Hints:
The protein is built from eight helices and 13 strands. It is of the alpha/beta class. It has two domains: about 5-125 and about 275-300, Rossmann fold, CATH 3.40.50; about 135-270, Dihydrodipicolinate Reductase, domain 2.
Amino acid sequence: MTRLLVVGAGQIGAAAAAAAIDDGVVDAIAGVVDPDPAAGARLGTQYNAPVYTSTHEVPQARSGDRALVAFSSRVDVVAPEILRLVAMGYSVVSTCEELAWPPRHMWNALHTAARTHGTAIVMTGVNPGFVMDRLPLLAAAACRNVKSLTVSRRIDSSARRESFIPKTGRGLSLDEWDAAVASGTVGHRGLVPSAHLLGHALGWPNRDVTDFLSPILTGDIVSGFRQHVTLRAGEKTIDLDLVVDWGLEAPGDRVVVDGEPPLEVEIKGGYHGDLGAAAQIVTALQHCGELPPSFYRPTDLPLRFG
Ligand SMILES: NC(=O)c1ccc[n+]([C@@H]2O[C@H](COP(=O)([O-])OP(=O)(O)OC[C@H]3O[C@@H](n4cnc5c(N)ncnc54)[C@H](OP(=O)(O)O)[C@@H]3O)[C@@H](O)[C@H]2O)c1
């Protein structure tokens, strides 16, 4: 029997739990962890599962148990929780953006814990997880002499989940935007990790990464943002460009590889961030038990499991 412990009963946790049950990837929800008892109770009642306010209260895993950790974009916040869950025997899937490229000492700790306890830790998602790393890597691997990779993603935030909107800065004045940038609550934490994943997977040494974030204004009020990350490795470059705005026209994703042959891949309308995240999580939950014990960043995962 495969059971799922949901750590973070937010919109992604709830959507992924429903998708995993619907698709038969897990048989039951083993428990729900959320410091907000009301949020935990909503999901716990739905699946007749026990509710905890902290991972300290969670029982040891039974054989086949998995945990989904979906509550923060910051690796320093999620890593201690993941390490605790792994020590209790859970295989862990997480959408934490910074987990895609954690600092070296954290990578070591996660990798060692997974090996020691015989489980897999998988970072998955849309961005990071697919659009700006796994997909462009697949495209680049089909070309010789890759000189540059450019990925652009345009998102209409009005079509996204509620919990995504505060990160876009929508409704802030410019002063409030500046304060939000300083406290790290707006913008996307996943672009720099995706750039590193690509540079690393392509084997490009001596990488230098710059990250530029600017607001999009409607009148004096912020309605979205543009973020541009550039990785330079000698003459070679990776450019990741993200535009997020309320009601943005012509949303979509595009990958351009300057190589032999040149290659351009377009996702018309864009890969939906919320539906896609649930799909990526379900795939990871389905297959994490088949992976040798280790910590897997998105570009470490095989295309075919089994
Ligand atoms: N990689 C990707 O492509 C991708 C895609 C989608 C989402 N994500 C990330 O996944 C995370 C979840 O997204 P979301 O939209 O579901 O967020 P959300 O709606 O804000 O939900 C997060 C939930 O987790 C709870 N929480 C906070 N600290 C916790 C802890 N220590 N243990 C357990 N639960 C805790 C929050 O409670 P409080 O409200 O009380 O804090 C909230 O109920 C976010 O960090 C998001 O950026 C990544």
